[in-house]
Amino acid sequence: MKKYLVFTLLLMFCGLSASAQQKKASIQFESVSHDFGTFSDKTPKQEYTFVFTNVGDAPLVVNQAVSSCGCTVPSYTKTPIAPGEKGEIKVTYNAGKSVGRFTKNITVRTNGDPELTRLYIKGEVTKSE
Predict the structure, then answer these.
(1) Pairwise CA distance, residues 95 & 58, whole Å
(2) 102 φ, ψ to 5°?
(3) Beta bridge mates, 109
(4) For residues 120 and 129, what is the distance between their CA atoms, to the nearest angstrom?
């Protein structure tokens, strides 16, 4: 009888953990890269918004968005994103006095699948005369 009770409890626990694992958030970006093209150092600040959708069946939380350098600043939706809803990561690039080609990346960490996504921006800053 004791073995039967332990076995039943074990099956119930496995069933509950399996059903809990099925519901998971999933992030899907419309695009993971953006090319600013060529722009002048007279307008060194450029912005782009990456849009994503929670294609999972649990709320999606963006835990962190960090850039590869201080010239690129990401800001993101802080509230949980319901399944089927959209969120965004706004990226501001400030070239300052730099000229030439650039490529930067932003690492996004979520509670969903995938847990880590890299976004990329690139472009070229020209010297104004």
Answers:
(1) 38
(2) -145, 150
(3) 64, 116
(4) 29
Which residues 6+ apart lie within 8 Å of 84 measured at CB? 53, 54, 55
Cβ atoms 86, 55 nearer than 8 A: no
Q: Which residues contact 76 (CB under 8 A, 6 or more apart)?
A: 62, 65, 87, 88, 89, 90, 108
- Of 78, 97, 80, nearest in space to 89 by CA: 78
pLDDT given at position 56: 96
Asked whether 8 and 94 are in contact (CB, 8 A), the reply is: no
| d(C-alpha 87, C-alpha 61), whole Å | 10
User: What is the Cα–Cα distance from 2 to 102, expressed in whole angstroms?
Assistant: 68
Q: Which residues contact 16 (CB under 8 A, 6 or more apart)?
A: none
pTM of this prediction exceeds 0.85:
no
Handedness of CA 85, 80, 116, 95 (dihedral sign): positive
Q: What is the pLDDT of residues 27-40, one digit of tens each?
A: 999 999 999 999 99
**In a 3-state reduction of DSSP, which class is residue 103?**
strand
